[in-house]
Write a structure and sequence with these properties.
The complex is a heterodimer. Chain A contains 6 helices and 4 strands. By secondary structure, chain A is α/β, with parallel strands linked by helices. A 4-stranded parallel beta sheet of chain A has the order 2-1-3-4, with helices on both faces. In chain A, helix 3 links the parallel strand 1 and strand 2. Chain A starts with a helix and ends in a 15-residue tail after the last helix. Chain B contains 12 helices and 8 strands. The chains are: A alpha/beta, B alpha/beta.
Chain lengths: 163, 324
């Protein structure tokens, strides 16, 4: 690789190769129906740009998230997972996001304990009126994961990218 | 010491015999000697004959609380012998409304800590079948090794070394004198050590551990808080877990098992003790307990049944372990 690059005069900066440049991470975003999913809609209808490699999955509430969803996402090829829900106090079901805050805080630390970089699993509160925040979070998340590179940890060895 | 043990045994037997033979309880859950001297297995006693086999020694390690749910289907009232950790498991099951406390008579046995046959074998350098022990006050003499004598504390099971509450909590009666609380013991040194190493090494560590998992599910079977009627492992629709021997599936199994007992684990350490490949499973559970304590306040499951379990409640101003 380095000799080939040497010939064309390209010098890898910080270990970045053209392949790594081209690589786009796969990010799964579990969005609450009442706030974050509507926020995503607003981002769309307001024609804001956010990376297309974020796959949004609509959930009735952020507290619908089963930690198994997150583990399965990592197992089957996700490089990053985001859970987005209503701001604390704004839950459509009054208190779902309060419970999930405790739940996912513990789960995030457990994931970190198992060796996954904590940046790969994030939680964000995005309301229905925050289209710009939605686009911003997706943008920064994609950049962070891009900097980390592909996730090989706890990946199913039988799994293959469809690309 | 031997005399005291016989006295203790008589005390226990008389107390439970009274209740069992008078019909106050239909079944007594205790322990009896198994095939080998270093094993005591669960005993399900229904009459005075069964009671003759009842035993209480340094190997009565099985947590009997886990049997209650199943046994209460067929018995009206059950008597159960409980060590400190077992009693907390019962309390936690009662709090989850999985066991009706009215139908259980809990006899508490303050526990001096139990011996680890693996350590005995290691110390003696002999097969356990060629070995015997004589227990003193705080020392254990290995017979068959020219009388090597070791401090009892050094032969305890891993789970007993980190035990803070050897005395049973919330029992109907204590059958032996209490041994006192042991809050000087460290519970999280292993977790802290793992937290401090780089993520890559931690991944390598867990990867090599989970790779050895046979998925026999002994950890789940032995766990007194695994009380679901249908476990996610067996569920067909949705199929949460594949059947293949694949490290990522092992990882999902162990992380989920530990997380399902979050806020309910009483640190009885049975998961780790029964593991045939000796996976350090308590490190996962301890990690969760440590985080609960750090983020949402000190909580020890099964100690105080009035205290809300941390994952079933919230405060509006809770801290989070992520950037909100």
């Amino acid at each position: 690789m380095s000799t080939a690059l040497g010939k064309t005069g390209e010098v890898p900066v910080n270990g970045a190769s053209p392949e790594k440049e081209r690589w786009t991470p796969l990010i799964v975003a579990f969005c609450c129906n009442w706030c974050s999913y509507a926020g995503g809609d607003l981002a769309g209808t307001s024609r804001m740009d956010y990376p297309a490699n974020v796959k949004v999955i609509r959930m009735p509430c952020s507290s619908r998230i089963n930690p198994l969803f997150i583990l399965r996402a990592f197992q089957r090829g996700a490089d990053g997972v985001l859970v987005a829900g209503c701001h604390p106090g704004d839950c459509h079901y009054t208190s779902g996001n309060y419970y999930v805050r405790r739940n996912l805080s513990l789960f995030r630390r457990l994931l970190e304990f198992s060796g996954i970089e904590p940046e790969r699993f994030q939680v964000s509160w995005i309301s229905a009126s925050e289209g710009d925040k939605f686009a911003g979070v997706m943008q920064s998340l994609t950049e962070e994961i891009k900097a980390l590179g592909p996730n090989g940890k706890w990946r199913d060895s039988r799994w293959q990218s469809v690309e | 010491m031997a005399e005291r043990r016989i006295n203790n045994m008589e005390k226990i037997r008389t107390a439970v015999a009274q209740d069992l033979l008078s019909g106050r309880i239909d079944l007594l859950l205790g322990w009896e000697k198994g095939l080998y001297w270093w094993q005591s297995r669960p005993l399900f006693a229904r009459n005075s004959e069964d009671l003759q086999r009842l035993t209480w020694d340094s190997f009565c390690v099985a947590n009997l609380s886990g049997y209650l749910q199943e046994e209460l289907k067929e018995n009206k009232k059950i008597g159960i012998l409980l060590k400190g950790c077992d009693s907390r498991a019962l309390n936690r099951l009662v709090q989850d409304q999985m066991v009706d406390r009215e139908r259980v008579v809990a006899y508490g046995l303050p526990c001096p800590g139990l011996l680890d046959p693996r350590l005995l074998k290691q110390e003696a350098g002999l097969e356990l079948t060629a070995l015997g022990i004589e227990e003193g006050e705080d020392r254990v003499t290995l017979t068959g090794t020219k009388g090597k004598s070791i401090a009892r504390e050094e032969l305890l099971l891993e789970k007993c070394r980190r035990c803070h509450h050897p005395d049973p909590v919330g029992c109907d009666q204590l059958l032996l004198p209490p041994v006192g609380s042991r809050e000087d013991r460290s519970r999280f040194h292993q977790v802290t050590r793992l937290e401090e190493i780089p993520a890559e090494e931690r991944f390598a560590y867990w990867s090599s551990q989970f790779e050895r998992c046979l998925r026999c599910y002994a950890c789940r079977e032995a766990c007194p808080c695994c009380s679901c009627r249908e476990c996610f492992v067996e569920q067909e629709e949705p199929r949460w877990l594949g059947k293949a021997h694949e490290n990522s599936e092992n990882f999902i199994y162990h992380l989920t098992r530990a997380f399902h007992s979050a806020g309910r684990c009483v640190e009885c350490g049975e998961c780790q003790r029964v593991c045939p490949v000796e996976l350090p499973l308590m490190e996962l559970s301890s990690k969760i307990i440590k985080d609960i304590n750090e983020l949402y306040g000190e909580y020890q499951a099964g100690l105080d049944t009035e205290q809300d379990p941390p994952l079933l409640t919230y405060q509006p101003d809770d801290p989070a372990a992520f950037v909100e």
